[in-house]
Amino acid sequence: MIHVLVIAVCAMGFLALAAAQKRHQRDLVRRTLTAREIRAARTGGAALLTFALVLDSRAFGLALGLLTWTGHLALAAGAIVALLVVRKPA
Predict the structure, then answer these.
(1) pLDDT tens across 13-60, in order?
(2) Is residue 41 within 8 Å of residue 87, measured between CB atoms?
(3) In whole angstroms, what is the distance from residue 44 CA to residue 1 CA?
(4) Of the candidates 20, 1, 4, the residue with the CA atom closest to the CA atom of residue 79
(5) How far apart (Å, rounded) are the C-alpha atoms in residues 42 and 73?
(6) pTM for the whole thing?
(7) What is the C-alpha separation between 32 and 28, in angstroms, rounded?
(8) Nearest-CA neighbor of 48 among 1, 9, 20?
(9) 80-55-49-41 Cα dihedral, nearest 10 degrees
(10) 79 FRET partner, CA 20 to 30 A, in 24, 36, 49, 73?
């Protein structure tokens, strides 16, 4: 169950980081964000990815936690890229 939770946290972090990029703002939030909102999205995204690392490290220990975290990052990143490609207007 921890795997699903950490992948969801990673996906939310990657969505926040994607929303901080101008190229994805129209697709994700339907408008251009202000500089303050972009900074908040970047900070929140980084915080969520760090929180996912903490969750994995506490669940599996530091060595195995780092390994599972990279796997969770890869799965979440792949899902977000697929989402952005599918949602991209023609």
Answers:
(1) 999 999 898 888 777 777 888 899 999 999 999 999 999 999 999 999
(2) no
(3) 23
(4) 4
(5) 16
(6) 0.89
(7) 10
(8) 9
(9) 100
(10) 36
